[in-house]
Protein 1
Amino acid sequence: MSDVVRAWGPDVPGIREVLHATFETHAYPAHTHDEWTVLLVDEGVVEYTLHREAHRTSPSTVSILPPHVSHDGSSALPGRPFRKRVLYLDAGWLPVAAASAAVARPILDDREIVRAVRALHRAVVHPAEDFAAEVLLHELRDRILDQGGERRPTPADRPLARRLRDLLDERLTESYTIEEAARVLGAHPSHLVRAFSRAYGIAPHRYVIGRRLQLARRLLLVGEPPSTAAVVAGFHDQAHLTRHFRRVLGVTPAAFARAS
């Protein structure tokens, strides 16, 4: 087995870089980043020293490494490779106060946080899912701050949620980001996601996908081919439409059209 690395910069606000790698022999020397690092190990065990303290992370945990703090990294099992996925996030993703907590306890074993990181990685590999990845990133932020007791509970904000819903409806078939909506509405992106999810019981990206599927169904029912329905309804391409159509309705767009 040889070392394998894939890295890219997705078009997702807040995410600077994504790294997927398998290392058989490589060991990272001590280094720093100017961004937050979220480390998920899929196979093997990784040991690292963060600010002179030794840690081990495995597939059941996530490591949150703060900016500007020295760390290294290598396989904890001699002769055994490790496979990892890493998100490098804007320095402002978490509040400054969270850095000291991350140095003291970088490894999180909360199952919901691990699942959230895995879901984010599943989304970020598809350019068509950039909006979903952005929403999932803000949900992950809230989960981490909640676990550390660093986020104060906020009351429901239905007026703000309604304004976001109106924006999403107006721009349903366009590429749009939570960051853009936050600027328009004068709210923090994470608060915007949280307010919407509380008010409607569904995350913003799932709401948008559902509305686009409704539009695509109407187009299919009047005879538009799936390729046209996908583009007109705001999907990235026909494959993007098909993936969500099958997930929600249990059939492909073509099968749905034939049965209508």
Protein 2
Amino acid sequence: MQRARKLALALAVCGLVGACASPPANISRIPVQTGQETSKDGLFTQPVKWEHSKPGCKGDCPTIKVDSIVFPGNPKLSDLVDNALAYMTGIGNSNVPTYSNIAEYEQYFWKTAAPRDSTLLSARTRYRNSSLTVVELDTWQYMTGMAHGISATQFLNWDNKTAKVLSLADVLRPGQRQAYNAALKEAHSRWLSANPELVGDLDTFVRQWPFQESTNYAFTDRGLLIKYDSYQIAPYSAGQPELVIPYDSLRGILKPEFLPS
């Protein structure tokens, strides 16, 4: 949750959250085709992949691995992905990072990392069409002595037309946040029913891992995808749960332009 707050701060500082922009209400920005089809009309991407160990280190050495993307011709979005991944690092640190991009984070990491520390920073497009680009940002960090690494995910819903990130408030109808939360809770109930081996006794599981509201949403061709970090609504063994709220359940909640035509 601290990483999410840091990322929200970074977006606000960069002025990239499009709270004021809204497209015409009579034009759907979610085509009825599948994401595989609409991605052909989306922004072009190129991979960025590398793995580095601490310079001059021998034996057990800290490492950084990057498996990310850039958007040729769109430096604003490319920079945002780079900045946001850097901001998502910092386990247990509530302070704003002293670095603002991956290159600066790498230099910071070499100065502070223990021998077996490791960081993975990745980005991929989760959904694309001619109007919207959804980028999934993932970090995984292991610090020496931990039982296991810690992962975190944030979505960027990029408006290709206004060149800004769409927050949840930007895509909901006014006054519909509670209705959105209710639809998300129904999706959570469906997720529980679909995972009986994980859940076991329902009352015990829900008491230990209660439902949590979330603004970490992503557009898909099926509906809004909500992804949780480990330990938010389930034990570590469950990974990072993904819930889907179908578009039919969001009519009257989402603004018309964000529903399939």
Protein 3
Amino acid sequence: MRSRGKRILVVDDELSIQRILRRNLLMSGYEVLVADNGEEALNAVRQHEPDLILLDLCLPGSIDGLEVCEQVRRQSQVPIIVLSARTEEKQKVRALDLGADDYLTKPFSNAELLARVRACLRRAASGGGGRQQEEAQVLRSSDGYLVMDVERRYVRAGDREVRLTPTEFELLRQLMLHAGKVLTHRTLLRAVWGPEYGEEADYLRVYVRQLRRKVEQEPSRPRYILTEPGVGYVFQADGRRDQQPTAASSVSNVAPAEE
């Protein structure tokens, strides 16, 4: 752990945005690196090992922001915050699919930027955002199909080991820890992403889809990570589809949002 400020890589080809981001981050005590394009960004990640990346999706040259995100995720779990325009919704969702941790829609305030940066760095430092807990260190579905060793950060689905990003790991941990209880969108967002969050339900949709792809036998017909329409998600420990709760029958099991 470096004693100096965390190192942040800003990847954007607009000089005005580079200057604003660099100035605001420096004033907040961060060390700042800047890359103008995808190739420079990938070189900077290899050479300087930043603690966080602010990544614009629209970059000049042959390597765009999506490819940067994809290549970085092959070698590192460094947090990535995507900077996107309002017209780039599909690219933004694709970036989250590829492993980005968060996004900011331009234009954004300095306060919002710094809050997201702090939240991402905090999650990375804690290995995914979870509280230090006295809870069980090994979580499993009742049929033994899904097993999570929290301390070893190991997940097994059936007879195969599953590699999860820190955010995916913490989301699955929260669901398994409260098996059988419907966790609201707000509760999950605050537990996994931090207290700055609560309304970004699209994060959950993307990450739940990713989790299902990785741990469910049939992602399109999930047995364990179930949707409670309009409310949130629930982990079904026995993997029986015919026991999916309904909002009417499981009100008493809904975990309250943390204030």
